[in-house]
Design a protein that fits this description.
The chain folds into four domains: about 5-135, Rossmann fold (3-Layer(aba) Sandwich), CATH 3.40.50.2300; about 145-310, Rossmann fold (3-Layer(aba) Sandwich), CATH 3.40.50; about 315-380, Helicase, Ruva Protein, domain 3; about 385-445, Arc Repressor Mutant, subunit A (Orthogonal Bundle). The chain is built from 19 helices and 16 strands. It has helices at about 10-25, 35-45, 60-70, 85-95, 105-135, 150-160, 175-185, 205-215, 230-235, 250-260, 285-290, 300-305, 320-335, 345-355, 360-375, 385-395, 400-420, 425-430, 435-445, and strands spanning about 5-10, 30, 50-55, 55, 60, 75-80, 100, 165-170, 195-200, 240, 265, 270-275, 280-285, 305-310, 340-345, 380.
């Protein structure tokens, strides 16, 4: 737990004594007789904790604590006060100091106090490091793709990220809308604050209203205590509303009020709650058509549609499939402790011929399955779902014996799945002998 401590005190004997006590506990100690010297040492070396006297020749320790804390927020400060001058210590804590001790008690209390301060510093540093890792994980640079169409979408997202503009992400299911929303948030000035996501299609109208806006105790039968909604939880941050087209029209008016006035009323409440939240939405619906059918408010649409980004379907960026497949292969190989390192040409050909109605999410699922089924370091066509194998052969426009065998293989596998592997029951359903079924299983490697 040892760290670096800076003692700021103009009384040399007291400073030296404290330095010896602290050094014996395994800490590295720096000394400064005044504020000027202290600033020089802080500029030259990282300091974990400062022990600072209130009365210095060139500064007031209380004011100095505030100045140091504003420039070095991760550094903790313990203030030394004279007996009977407790208000200085209290004021120093209000200014951001970790704690204070009175001179005379310092030799007994300083080490436990330093240990607690160091624990806090180390925790803050770990949190900061995790925040950096999270930021890198969600950075635009981690959105994979070499195709021009995905680069165009990323360029638009980078432009809007630093602003507070509402963003609408359009695209099919599985195109990465939440990934883009996360990247926009982490590229904004709100990145240190919450990012919360909600799929509007996952809740009934009543539940969605409670999830979004919160409620007061007694608002309905099961509301036994107050609940903060996601809009309030995301205050000063970003709220991502996926499948916004699924939101009931009655709730749309409440969301519109948030966008127009930065306030809302909780379920069962009588007063407004103020918020400062950025809204990013996504949909795979045609909202213009929803407006014409009376299912979506036109005024809300224009408030949400300030900046639109169209995310391309995977079939429109097939150039990126090998890159994405390799990325998912590496992730799942590590996750499952499989030594899978490559894909056969035929495997990649099948991936690129597929229509990918589920887009990147479908590719991710197929790659996870393929890695789990792999028998060696190379993924082959046999590791793909039978549906994918058959569909790709049929898409080539030929009807060879191989195609018929593929259909038979697929059908047998489906029946085995239906019977949960019961071969006797499967043979009955297929109207073939059990011996024939075993031969087919061995021939098609379905075991």
């Amino acid at each position: 737990m040892a760290g670096r401590i800076l003692i700021i005190d103009d009384e040399e004997k007291l400073r030296n004594l404290m330095a010896r006590i602290i050094t014996l506990e395994g800490f590295e100690v720096l000394e400064a007789m005044n504020a000027k010297t202290a600033w020089k040492k802080l500029e030259q070396q990282d300091v974990d904790v400062i022990v600072c006297d209130v009365k210095l020749p060139d500064a007031n320790g209380v004011t100095l604590s505030q100045q140091i804390k504003s420039k070095f927020p991760l550094t903790e400060i313990i203030v030394l006060t004279a007996f009977g001058n407790i208000p200085d210590g209290v004021q120093a804590m209000k200014n951001g100091a970790f704690d204070y001790i009175t001179k005379g008690d310092d030799n007994e209390k300083i080490i436990p106090l330093l240990n607690r301060a160091i624990e806090k510093v180390q925790l803050q540093k770990r949190i900061k490091q995790l925040e950096k890792q999270v930021g890198k994980h969600y950075a635009f640079e981690n959105i994979l793709g070499d195709s021009a169409i995905i680069h165009d979408a990323i360029a638009l997202a980078k432009k809007v990220a630093p602003t507070d503009a509402t963003v609408m992400l359009l695209g099919e299911t599985g195109t990465g809308k939440e990934v883009f929303a996360q990247a926009i948030h982490h590229g904004s000035k709100r990145s240190a604050n919450p990012f919360l996501a909600l799929n509007c299609s996952a809740f009934s109208k009543e539940l969605l209203e409670s999830e979004l806006f919160g409620h007061k105790a007694g608002a309905f039968t099961s509301a036994i205590k107050d609940k903060r909604g996601l809009i309030e939880e995301a205050n000063d941050g970003t709220l991502f509303l996926d499948e916004i087209g699924e939101m009931h029209i009655d709730l749309q008016s409440k969301l519109l009020r948030v966008l127009e006035t930065n306030e809302f009323i909780k379920v069962g409440d009588t007063k407004s709650t103020k918020v400062n939240v950025r809204i990013i939405t996504a949909t795979n619906r045609d909202l213009q058509q929803e407006i014409e059918e009376g299912q979506f408010r036109e005024d809300l649409f224009y408030r949400l549609n300030v900046f639109t980004i169209q995310l391309p379907a995977l079939r429109d960026r097939k150039k990126d499939i090998p890159l994405l497949a390799t990325h998912f292969m590496q992730i799942f190989a590590e996750k499952t402790n499989q030594s899978v390192t490559s894909m056969s040409k035929e495997f990649l050909d099948h991936l690129q011929q597929h229509t990918w109605k589920g887009n990147i999410r479908e590719l991710k699922n197929i790659m996870e399955r393929a890695v789990i089924l792999a028998n060696d370091s190379r993924l082959t066509v046999d590791n793909l779902p039978l549906e994918l194998q058959v569909m790709n052969h049929q898409s080539q426009g030929t009807l060879s014996a191989f195609d018929l065998a593929s259909v038979e293989k697929l059908h047998i596998q489906r029946v085995l799945n239906h019977t949960k592997g019961n071969k006797t029951e499967a043979a009955k359903l297929l109207n073939i002998g059990l011996t024939t079924l075993y031969r087919k299983i061995e021939e098609y490697r379905l075991g």
